[in-house]
Amino acid sequence: MEKGMDWEQRCLLDVLTHGKDRAKQLQKHLTSSLSTQMGFVLVDDILGCYEKALSVLNSGALSETKSAVTMLESPPSVANSTDAASDQKEVSKKRKTMSTRTEYVKASAGTPQEVPLDDGYCWRKYGQKDILGSKHPRGYYRCTHRHSQGCLATKQVQKSDDDPTIFEVTYRGRHTCKQSSHLAAAVAAALPMEAESMEKPEQPEEAMLNFGTGLRVKTEELETKEEIFPSFPFPYSSNELEEGGSNIFPESMLENEIMASFPSAFVSPVSSESNYFSMSSCHVGSFGLGQTSESDLTEIISAPASVTNSPDLDFSVELDPNFSFDNLECFS
DNA sequence: CGTATTTGACCGAC
DNA sequence: GTCGGTCAAATACG
């Protein structure tokens, strides 16, 4: 495994450098033509991502991010089995029967540092710790409905060491609560089965790209079966990138990426697809107004592009047409 | 007054 | 013993 890494790293280095270049170009272009703010945010994210990845590769350290990068290259099915065996240093104390997933959330420009980091769920802070080797403390959150509904989902939020605009959000467990807020509720409710014993498609949020602030998602399934949901916004390979030619990262592609991957991967032979997730467009539409009110949920579902690689996982999701998306409050 | 956050204590894993 | 995660009393907030 270590041997293959060399080639992969070189490849990655190439790709990332290339991509970074292009993203910069796009950024300039956007600046001049004043396109949608989404473009800016995305480009910003792209750059941040590349910066990080490159620094990792150059230093050869930081196993954590490395595994995130690895997902870029390798399909989901491969990463997990070896993951448990070889990457033990990173996950030395994995909790059995607990899924872990880390997102690297970049605060959009202008956003204050105490970003709400609203991901659609209601979290309650229950602790904070200074972490060895980290400049910033780590906050511990659990689902508000832990006691009322026995929801065991938790998350940890920590500001990135060197980039204060990036937050590392680690989700643990899954929501079993029915949140009145967010599509999570609807999606979760529609999931075929929620049985604890089954490693079904985890929380729908898993496959989400937090748009207003979203950056990167790393998924680590540490469960018995270990399924991985690499919901990578840019699931390109080095080849594709090369072929990109002149139109690299066109804005439309980015949007399509999300819009397209979403229903195609989630939708199953369900009759009512017209109202199916109609709010997704609403979300995209409302995005990019520079407004980041705290309850502003600029999220969207982007299905893992590689989900098609794992036939086992078929999401069948449908949304209650009556589902009110305005109901984003956390109260029940 | 009920709920959320803060913060030191506690506990289990290394 | 150290470290990370959680608990819970005290406090803040509405």
TrEMBL record:
Any one Pfam family match given in the protein's UniProt record, by short name: WRKY
GO terms for cellular component: nucleus
Biological process, per Gene Ontology: leaf senescence; response to hydrogen peroxide; response to ozone; response to salicylic acid
Subcellular localization, as worded in the UniProt entry: Nucleus
PROSITE patterns associated with the record: WRKY (PS50811)
Keyword DNA-binding: yes
Domain spans labelled WRKY: 112-175
Main location: nucleus
Alphabetical keyword list: DNA-binding, Nucleus, Transcription, Transcription regulation
Start and end residues of each stretch annotated as Disordered: 73-97
InterPro entries: WRKY_dom, WRKY_dom_sf, WRKY_plant
Annotated GO MF terms: DNA-binding transcription factor activity; transcription cis-regulatory region binding
Superkingdom, natural source: Eukaryota
Family assignment from sequence similarity: Belongs to the WRKY group III family.
The name this protein goes by in its record: WRKY domain-containing protein
